[in-house]
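Before relying on records like the one below, remember that each one covers exactly one chain. Contacts with other chains, cofactors or solvent are not represented anywhere in the record.
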Amino acid sequence: MLIASVAVDYVPNARPGFNSFQLLLLCAGLATTLCALYLRREEARKTLFRRARKNLLASVLITAASLAALELALTLMGAPTHYPAEIPAVEYEPAPWWTCDAAGCHYVAGLINEICEVVESPVWSCLVNAQGFHDVQDFVASEDLSSRFRILTMGDSFTFGLSADEGKSYVDAIEARVPESVVWNTGISGIGTKQALASFQVFAPIMKPDIAIYGFYVNDFDDNLLPIDGYFVGVDEAGRPIGIRNHRVDQWGNLVKLDQSTAVYFHERVLYPPSNEVARLIGTTRLGSLVLNAIETLGHSTGIALNARHEKRVAITRQALASLRDEAAAIDATLLILLIPSKEDLTKGPGLRHRTAIELFEALSIAYIDPYSALEVAADYAPGEDVHWNTAGHQKIGELLSDCLIAVQASEDLSDCGAVILP
């Protein structure tokens, strides 16, 4: 135990320094050693078992008193609890300009101007069509729709066009360079593959796209852990819009549904929620918090928790991508994925999620474009903490996709697009 408590510092991802988990290991080791030395004698073992049977009630009372004393001692020492005994009540009225239905989560036409009156937003970003998506045209079958080249785009804030100048997103660039086509943009900020699938299932039967382009960003793995109907948008006490998930994911990647006050509490503090009510109750005590902290430290330092979350992300994302692939094939639409690298991928090399995404696309035989080598952080991404492409980045990707679409439109063969990787 002594060796293990010291070795914790040398486990990958561990933070050096003596912590509560190491103290617990050390104390457990000393106690185990003393007990083992005492119980080596046969007479000692017989005496212990005989007294234990005879004084079971006393043992329980002594144990309870000891635990209570430890709890009191930790309280006097000012040890914090893992979870609060009471969570402040909050009441957010769901914003009328946001809704979730069969097409996923989106804005409500005619009401989005309410948020634009509160937040300084570009006028174009407040523009939505009758279906609640960021597009100047409604998603309805026009008379000439069947005779034109049809493109359905799906994705998150990148596809929505965040951080690009007015009319300069990569979807706008496609529309400008392939003017004879019809492009419907179902991109919505903060969503993942399951939202893209829902939007496809609703609008693809109407549009019957020749090609469906899904902008996959690496945080889609996280978004896919959450249900698309578990996201509400409200207004805080200062009148600012706030988006909160009704669900959160615990340290091990398990989905946990929370009431509104609890959801807000853990959202604001960026904390993992308790896995269940028992864990929450244990975490409201200081002794129980010591145990939970030890478990979390062990899960973090050994990478067990990270691996568990990653495996769940991959499994759910794989299922959603496979469904999207099959839905596209069912209506003879070509599915193409645009893999969106993060800033960190470009500065440090393709990360785990970027590599995992490519593995999934290839395992599921889904065509994709990886513009990793064509992008530069300084030139193509917004400055500071903004993770999105700037106008230059959007235009670069729009040109890349447009050239691809023009080639596909001419030959009806995706292999004629040089940027496409066909598994």
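The first strand starts at residue 98 and ends at 101.
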